[in-house]
From TrEMBL:
Protein name as catalogued: Patatin-like phospholipase family protein
Keyword Hydrolase: yes
DGA/G (motif): residue ranges: 157-159
Keywords recorded for this protein, A-Z: Hydrolase, Lipid degradation, Lipid metabolism, Membrane, Transmembrane, Transmembrane helix
MF terms (GO), sorted A to Z: hydrolase activity
Source domain of life: Bacteria
Amino acid sequence: MLFWKKKKKIGLALGGGAVFGAAHIGVLKAVEELKIPVSFIAGTSIGAMVSAFYAFGVGLPELEKIAKDLRWLDISGLTLSEFGLLSNKKLGELLGEKIGDVELSQSKIPLAMVATDITTGERVVLKDGKLAPAVMASTCIPGIFKPVEIGDRLLVDGGIVENVPLSPLHELGADYVIAVDLNANHKYKKPENIIEVLLNSFHFALQTTARLQTEDADLLIQPDLSEFNRIDLNQVEELIEAGYAEAMRVLKDIDKRLREK
């Protein structure tokens, strides 16, 4: 893969998409198989969770096992807060169990994640401080999860401001950005519960801005996840395969075209 060897600072942006985040594991599998060197990684929402595990050296077999074993009750619990139905504190505990009580700056691959200040609407890029609260903040879907307090900020899901986190990678120093958008090809179905109502509403609001933001990517991977359910955790294996297949197709195609020039 001569093309990738010429690119010294490749950044990988993993976007949000709830359970669809399992497709990111398939993308990472393709990246590793093709020996594409990732210098920086950034994540938003579920992309923040996957990027955290990967940046701290959790291998793909272990990451796949974590994804397959995961249940909503493992990452959330009821809260008495007036700000959300659930708390994602258990997600922070899972990160502590698998990675430890670590700082973002300790990652093996330089890592950033995006959250939203729910008071001001500002984009907040998290590159320092404790890992677990940062991931909890970036994955904190408003209305479902209680906001996460970091410093003097009240933070929620970064998808509101940047669902596919390209800008943090440029800030870190990437000169070529591969972006993964999990929502581009999704077909929405009639919701069956309040969680699906809230998730659909949230992701409708993200679609237009995400399209504009991903135009700045050097390479865009958009797996077709139209037939998958956004909250069904029993489809992880199929989502991983969908992410892998599309990543291999796109990455091999760009390399072939550049070789032919």
